[in-house]
């Protein structure tokens, strides 16, 4: 590993990029919600979200040349001596940019990672959506073999809220988080009054950087709501 951490300018650039990514993500989820006849499957929702992310990027930051990349493998890490298992894993979206303030050129590629999962009532007992949000979503930012957002201070989860009462979904997700010794999600504001809303928590990880801030953005796409 490098002998020193990121510079103040580097940390400030990350904070600026995080805020920009989250603003684009929230706007894109609003645009997605306006789409008629939304599909049910996660892969199809992600495809539509990608185009919404591009529209939101042009709308909010027309001079920003950094686009979100869908289904791109985790990027190589200079601290690994050989190709790591995590390099075979593919987050749903990444914003990848070069940090001109990073002291080590090999560490200058920075990625803000987003993983998406469905929320609500499961159609089959073997695939429980609200549990999967934790076990196949949140855990990927913590598990060393996935290590989404490795070396970075934050990342994001998208929740496609397709059914159930909001309190029930949040309760089930938090139960699963507790089972995995993870902190519960905390809504940022009066979330039930908004079609797109934020939740947050902080993860302790066994690798750099820890603690890690995971920003959650859920979109209400329940039919008839």
Cα gyration radius (Å): 17 Å
Q: What helical percentage do the residues reach?
A: 25-40%
Number of domains: 1
Proportion of beta-strand residues: 15-25%
First-last Cα distance:
50 Å
* Topology order in helix (H) and strand (E) letters: HHEEEHEHEEE
Q: Which sheet architecture does the biggest sheet show?
A: 7 strands, mixed
The count of DSSP E runs of length 2 or more, i.e. the number of strands, is 7
How are the strands of the biggest sheet laid out side by side? 1-2-3-4-7-6-5
Description:
With 225 residues, the chain is an alpha/beta fold. It has one domain. The protein is 29% helix and 21% strand. It has a 7-stranded mixed sheet, with helices on both faces. Helix 1 crosses helix 2 and helix 3 crosses helix 4. The longest helix has 26 residues. The termini are far apart. The model has no long low-confidence stretch (mean pLDDT 93).
Provide the descriptors you would attach to this structure in a database record.
seven-stranded mixed beta sheet; single chain; 21% strand; 225 residues; alpha/beta; 4 helices; 7 strands
Summarize the structure.
This protein has one domain (8-220). Helices cover 29% and strands 21% of the residues.
Write the layout of secondary structure elements.
Blueprint: H1 8-33, H2 42-60, E1 68-70, E2 93-98, E3 109-119, H3 129-135, E4 154-161, H4 166-179, E5 186-187, E6 196-203, E7 212-220
Parallel strand pairs: 3-4, 4-7
Antiparallel strand pairs: 1-2, 2-3, 5-6, 6-7
């Amino acid at each position: 590993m490098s002998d020193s951490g990121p510079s103040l300018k580097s940390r400030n650039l990350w904070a600026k990029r995080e805020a920009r990514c989250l603003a684009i993500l929230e706007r894109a989820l609003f645009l997605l919600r306006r789409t008629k006849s939304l599909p049910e499957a996660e892969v199809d929702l992600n495809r539509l979200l990608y185009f919404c992310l591009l529209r939101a990027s042009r709308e909010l930051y027309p001079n920003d040349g950094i686009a979100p990349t869908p289904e791109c493998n985790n990027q190589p890490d200079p601290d690994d001596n050989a190709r790591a298992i995590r390099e075979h894993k593919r987050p749903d979206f990444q914003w990848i940019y070069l940090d001109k303030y990073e002291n080590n050129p090999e560490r200058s590629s920075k990625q803000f990672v987003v993983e998406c999962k469905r929320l609500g009532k499961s159609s089959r007992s073997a695939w429980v959506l609200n549990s999967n949000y934790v076990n196949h979503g949140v855990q990927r930012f913590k598990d060393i073999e996935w290590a989404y957002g490795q070396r970075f201070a934050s990342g994001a989860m998208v929740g496609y809220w397709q059914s159930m009462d909001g309190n029930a979904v949040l309760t089930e997700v938090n139960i699963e988080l507790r089972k995995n010794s993870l902190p519960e999600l905390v809504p940022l504001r009066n979330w039930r009054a908004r079609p797109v809303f934020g939740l947050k928590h902080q993860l302790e990880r066994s690798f750099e950087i820890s603690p890690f801030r995971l920003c959650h953005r859920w979109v209400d796409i329940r039919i008839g709501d």
